[in-house]
Please model this.
Amino acid sequence: MNRTMKMAHAYFSISQSMKSNTDEIIRVLEAEGPESPKFQRLWVERDSAFLSWSNAAAALRELPLEEVLMVHQQVEKMRAQIG
Model:
């Protein structure tokens, strides 16, 4: 796997994790409220996922424009595959 594919996969995976975490946080907030241990755990996971996403986005900004475009195209292909 080349650098472009690795970055695309990492960015996509992190984005999916953030989406799943957001969906779960909403469910837990509605069912248990913000003081629940499950919500607190999910919030810590969200902080970690956001930091990873932020780092991936920063790494993309360091790439030449042509590589950013290739990463973007790969991410869009991955998104299309899941629906």
